[in-house]
TrEMBL record:
<dbReference type="InterPro" id="IPR042097">
    <property type="entry name" value="Aminopeptidase_N-like_N_sf"/>
</dbReference>
<protein>
    <recommendedName>
        <fullName>Aminopeptidase N</fullName>
        <ecNumber>3.4.11.2</ecNumber>
    </recommendedName>
</protein>
<comment type="similarity">
    <text>Belongs to the peptidase M1 family.</text>
</comment>
<dbReference type="GO" id="GO:0006508">
    <property type="term" value="P:proteolysis"/>
</dbReference>
<dbReference type="InterPro" id="IPR001930">
    <property type="entry name" value="Peptidase_M1"/>
</dbReference>
<dbReference type="GO" id="GO:0008237">
    <property type="term" value="F:metallopeptidase activity"/>
</dbReference>
<feature type="domain" description="Peptidase M1 membrane alanine aminopeptidase">
    <location>
        <begin position="282"/>
        <end position="478"/>
    </location>
</feature>
<keyword id="KW-0862">Zinc</keyword>
<keyword id="KW-0732">Signal</keyword>
<keyword id="KW-0645">Protease</keyword>
<dbReference type="Pfam" id="PF17900">
    <property type="entry name" value="Peptidase_M1_N"/>
</dbReference>
<dbReference type="InterPro" id="IPR045357">
    <property type="entry name" value="Aminopeptidase_N-like_N"/>
</dbReference>
<keyword id="KW-0479">Metal-binding</keyword>
<keyword id="KW-0378">Hydrolase</keyword>
<dbReference type="InterPro" id="IPR014782">
    <property type="entry name" value="Peptidase_M1_dom"/>
</dbReference>
<keyword id="KW-0482">Metalloprotease</keyword>
<feature type="signal peptide">
    <location>
        <begin position="1"/>
        <end position="18"/>
    </location>
</feature>
Amino acid sequence: MRHPVLLTLLLPPLLVVGCTSDPGTPAAGPSSSVSATPSPTAPAIDYTVWQAGRSTPVADPIYPARGTAALDVLHYGLALEWAPTTKTLTGTATLRIRPTRDAAALTLDFMPYQLDGVTLDGATVTGTVAKEKLTVTAPVTADKPVTLVVKYHGRPKATPMPSHRSDVEDLGLTITKEGGLWTMQEPFGAFTWYPANDQPSDEALYDIEVTVPPGWSAIANGTPAAQSGTTFTYRSADPVATYLTTLAVGKYQKLTAKGPRGIPLTYWYRKGTDDKLLPYLKKSPQYIAWLEKRFGPYPFPSGGVVVVDSESGMETQQMITMGRKIDNTKARRDRWGTDLLHEYAHQWFGDSVTPTTWRDLWLNEGWATYAQDLYIQETLHLSDASLDSYLRQADAKLRAKLGPPGKPNPKNFAEGNVYLCPEAMLRELHNALGDKKFFALARAWAQEHRNTQQDRASFIAFVNKQTGRNFTKLINTWLDSKTTPKSTTT
């Protein structure tokens, strides 16, 4: 997610920016359910085809009400249809699930849509939606995978974001004035459009198909597959955390390009509305090339950007979601471009290498913000001393206001301390190691941990092993201190 504030150096300016029911449909009340009836036994399924979606879920300490460690979703198959005139989303979600423990029921995060049918391994079962949870009453056994199919419909509703950022917006699926859709959902909100284990530690594979009316386009995360009529299909062969999924529907223009090594890129924008942003979309190959030089090959088979009616930007996997309302006045328009580079940096840091819990959001934002500022420093020819001075000043202000980045307040999600303070820590590492060793460390971290979930302990262990030096105290101090640590390198 893009940085929520704009700070400037006292010396040359260094920009730091970023991350009622419908007619003709049954009313979806505060809870809905379907009851169990007998059904024939489903044929055996080979779940090994979704092995790449296997995770080790853990309960999130920051937002414990979201997600569960009791199940591991291996694959989401989402077949969705959007009707702009009635603002109705109709869906069939097929989840391949590995229970992690014996249980009498399955529980997932889900908005109170009207349930049209629920089956488990082909048998109709009882499903109830209440308090943003879908409970499927049927016994499951640890490590014995099951297939859950949920059919539903209703009008999407977003959920509040637990933050005081200047660009705070509700999370999840949002309906536009013209009847389109868009979503950003960090730290949660995927449950506003499909049943989800909505926490970062449970990554899964995805197949998403979305049917829209003629003249409309549907965009989602993953690699675009063949379009059939007005049905758009996307596949993620690399595991994806729920917060990194996206969906947008609108009357879009499509532009394709090639990135480094022929990586296919797709840009979705509104003609007339977004024309002034096209130069920055078209700089995507340049941004990716700059990042590849420092962090290794782009980690996915395709990339792209969809522009939506938001004030923020989000590193949704393989298809970045960028808000057209981010300050893009003529005097500040480069901010939109460097925000886009920030989101591309997240494809390495956050998407490919994902934090195990929201306690370690700094591990995403510190790297992406540092990449962004290094790019700005290079393009504006700013001195190392000015960057060092800026980071220490910004760090001091943010720690005093928000506390240390390693102990985030659940009410202050993705505020400035988890961006600038870990960036200052990475700057200390950079100064201690020098360019060659630091970027070797950064590249190895991103490339050797592709498609995994990591945390503070694993990062410290890796840094110490990679460098042959003990940086444990330095890293822990920068993550936990209430005041800016003394610099040992400048």
